[in-house]
Design a protein that fits this description.
Keywords: Glycoprotein, Signal. By secondary structure, the protein is mainly beta. It has helices at 2-21, 172-180, 312-321, 379-384, 496-500; strands at residues 26-38, 45-50, 59-62, 66-73, 81-84, 109-115, 121-127, 139-144, 158-167, 190-193, 202-205, 210-217, 224-228, 233-238, 241-242, 247-248, 250-253, 258-264, 272-278, 286-293, 348-359, 362-367, 370-372, 405-407, 410-413, 418-425, 431-435, 440-447, 465-466, 468-471, 475-482, 487-493, 504-509. It is globular and about 65 Å long. The termini are far apart.
Length: 540
C-alpha cells in the first residue's frame, strides 16, 4: 500500500510541476522614447524614436505570450502607445488610448503587461496622443502560431515587416496647431515605406524562395495600393485570420489595416520595384522600395508599374474576395461555442454614420452627430472607481440627422451579446473604422443606403474576421461582433485628423450582472491621473 501512495504522491508532484512549467512565456522589452532628427522626405524634421529607431522595433511573439513592455518617456510631453489589433482580453486598462489608460508624464516610465491571448497574426503599435502618430513612434507586431499548431502554408525563407503610410514634412506640432485652430490638414507630402522615401529600403531575396510580407498602413488618412513589379502576391492572413489563398497583382491597404502576403522570387534575377501609391486622390502620390535578388548587379530602371487610382468598384470587388480559410488551424472567434457565426441570431443592431461640419466656427467630425470630447480622466478609471462624470448612452445607436454637437460619447452594450453594426458613409471619401479589443466579421458592404433587405446579401459562411474595415463613399459596411471581452473599448476612425477632432466613441461592454471574475482588476502599479490620481490601484 505504501508504494502505491508514494507513486500517487510522485504523480501529483509531476503534475503540479508541469503546470508551473506550462505557464505561458514572458517576453521583456525596455524602450526609451525620444525625439530625433529624421529625413524621410529629404528635409530635416522632428521624429519620435524608440531606442533610437524610426520606425520602432518589431514586437515578435507567439500565441498566449505575456509581453512586459517598459516605456521610458524622454519627450517633453505626455506619451502613450496603443496596440492596434491586440485584444488585451478582460484588460482594457492597458489598451493605451486616453479613454482607458493614463499617459506617461515626461521623464517617467510605465510598464505595460499585455497577453496576446488566443491570437495570431500581423498588427502594429502606434502613439495615440497629441497627434504623435505624425512623427513616428510606430512599429510592427507579429504573433506566431504555437509550434504544434499547423499553419496553412510552408515556413517562408524570411518574414519582413513593411509599414506604409502617407507623410508630412511638417512637424507633428505644426499639424496639431492646424487642427487645434479648427482647420483641415493639407494634402500629404509623400508616402513612406519603413520610414524611408523613394528607393530608401531594400528587401533581399534568393531566387526560387518564398517570403512573407506583413504590410500595415500606419498612415494618417490615405488608402494605399501595394504591388511588387513582376510578382504575384498570395494573401494568407488578415489581422489574425488565415484567409483563402487568393492571388493578387496589387492590394489595397486602407488606413489602419494589416495584411500578410507570400511572394516567390521566380522572376529575372535583378532588382524590382516595390510600389506604394495613394488611392482615390488627386494627385496620386507614389513611392518605391527595392526587391533585390541576391547576387544581382542590375538596379531598378524605368518608371515603376502603375496601379489602380480612383476605381471604387475595383477595390470593393477585391474586398469582397477576401475570405476566411475555414480549414486552417489556430485561434479564431468562437461566439456562443460555435464557429458558425451566420447561424447565430443577432440581439441588437447599431447604425453609425460619420459626418463633418463646423462647431463654433471650427472643424469637427462626428458619429451620429456627436463629436467626441475627452475628459480630464480616462473613462475606464472613472468607471472602475465609480466616480462617474460621463453618461452611458450619450450617443444614440442610430443616426439622428441633426447638427453636430460635442459630448463624451459612450455607447452601452451588453456583455455576451451578439450584435450587428452598420457603418454608414454619406460622404465622398473612403472611411476606415477600427474597434479595440475585438475582431469582427465583415459580413457585407455595398453602395447606397443600408436597409434590412441588405441582409439578404450578407456572407454568412466565410466572411473575414478582422479589427479594421473600410467603408466606401456613399456606401455601407456591416459587421457582426460577439461581445465576449468586457471593458471600455475605443471605436474610431483611422483617419487621424478626424479621430483627433471627434470621430470616435467608446463601447462600454458590461451587464448589471458582470462580476469581478469577468474582468481583470486594474494592474498593480498602474499609473493613475486626473480625478483618480490619489486612489490606490484597487478600489477602496
Amino acid at each position: 500500500m505504501l508504494p502505491l501512495k508514494f507513486a500517487v504522491a510522485v504523480l501529483l508532484v509531476v503534475l503540479i510541476g508541469n503546470s508551473v512549467v506550462a505557464e505561458d512565456p514572458y517576453r521583456y522589452f525596455d524602450w526609451n522614447v525620444t525625439y530625433g532628427t529624421i529625413y524621410p522626405l529629404g528635409v530635416p524634421q522632428q521624429g519620435i524614436l524608440i531606442n533610437g529607431q524610426f520606425p520602432g522595433p518589431d514586437i515578435n511573439s507567439v500565441t498566449n505570450d505575456n509581453l512586459v513592455i517598459n516605456i521610458h518617456n524622454s519627450l517633453d510631453e505626455p506619451f502613450l502607445l496603443s496596440w492596434n489589433g491586440v485584444q488585451n482580453r478582460r484588460n482594457s486598462f492597458v489598451d493605451g488610448v486616453y479613454g482607458t489608460t493614463c499617459p506617461i508624464p515626461p521623464g517617467r516610465n510605465n510598464t505595460f503587461n499585455l497577453q496576446v491571448k488566443d491570437q495570431i497574426g500581423s498588427f502594429y503599435y502606434f502613439p495615440s496622443l497629441a497627434f504623435h502618430k505624425a512623427a513616428g513612434g510606430f512599429g510592427g507586431i507579429r504573433i506566431l502560431s504555437r509550434p504544434r499548431i499547423p499553419v496553412p502554408f510552408p515556413d517562408p525563407a524570411n518574414d519582413y515587416t513593411i509599414l506604409i503610410g502617407d507623410w508630412y514634412k511638417k512637424n507633428h506640432t505644426d499639424l496639431k496647431t492646424i487642427l487645434d485652430g479648427g482647420r483641415k490638414l493639407p494634402f500629404p507630402d509623400g508616402i513612406l515605406i519603413n520610414g524611408r522615401g523613394p528607393n530608401g529600403v531594400t528587401f533581399t531575396v534568393d531566387q526560387g524562395k518564398t517570403y512573407r510580407l506583413r504590410i500595415s498602413n500606419v498612415g494618417l488618412q490615405n488608402s494605399l495600393n501595394f504591388r511588387v513589379e513582376g510578382h504575384k502576391m498570395t494573401l494568407v492572413e488578415v489581422e489574425g485570420t488565415h484567409t483563402l489563398q487568393t492571388t493578387y497583382s496589387s492590394l489595397d491597404v486602407h488606413v489602419g489595416q494589416s495584411y500578410s502576403v507570400l511572394i516567390t522570387a521566380n522572376q529575372e534575377a535583378k532588382d524590382h520595384y516595390i510600389v506604394v501609391s495613394s488611392r482615390f486622390t488627386t494627385p496620386v502620390l507614389t513611392t518605391t522600395a527595392v526587391l533585390h535578388y541576391s547576387g544581382s548587379n542590375t538596379p531598378v530602371s524605368g518608371p515603376p508599374p502603375g496601379g489602380p487610382t480612383i476605381q471604387i468598384d475595383w477595390s470593393l470587388n477585391q474586398a469582397r474576395s477576401i475570405r476566411t480559410n475555414l480549414s486552417a488551424s489556430g485561434p479564431r472567434p468562437n461566439p456562443q461555442g460555435s464557429y458558425h457565426y451566420g447561424m447565430i441570431n443577432t440581439t441588437k443592431t447599431i447604425r453609425l454614420a460619420s459626418s463633418a461640419g463646423q462647431v463654433n466656427g471650427k472643424q469637427r467630425y462626428a458619429v451620429n452627430s456627436v463629436s467626441f470630447v475627452p475628459l480630464d480622466t480616462p473613462l475606464k478609471l472613472l468607471d472602475y472607481f465609480k466616480i462617474g462624470g460621463f453618461r452611458v448612452g450619450s450617443i444614440p445607436d442610430s443616426p439622428t440627422g441633426g447638427g453636430i454637437y460635442q459630448d463624451t460619447s459612450v455607447l452601452g452594450v451588453d456583455y455576451r451579446q451578439f450584435i450587428e453594426i452598420i457603418f454608414e458613409n454619406n460622404e465622398d471619401i473612403v472611411q476606415s473604422w477600427h474597434l479595440d479589443g475585438y475582431s469582427f466579421w465583415v459580413v457585407g458592404m455595398d453602395g447606397g443606403q443600408w436597409t434590412q433587405a441588405s441582409r439578404n446579401g450578407y456572407n454568412l459562411r466565410d466572411a473575414v474576421s478582422r479589427c479594421t474595415t473600410q467603408v466606401y463613399p456613399k456606401s455601407w459596411t456591416a459587421i457582426y461582433i460577439a461581445l465576449d471581452n468586457v471593458g471600455m473599448w475605443n471605436l474610431r476612425t483611422e483617419f487621424w485628423a478626424r479621430q483627433y477632432l471627434g470621430q470616435q466613441l467608446y463601447m462600454r461592454v458590461y451587464t448589471d450582472s458582470t462580476s469581478l471574475r469577468d474582468e481583470y482588476p486594474i494592474p498593480r502599479g498602474a499609473r493613475l491621473c486626473g480625478k483618480v490620481a490619489n486612489r490606490h490601484t484597487r478600489p477602496l
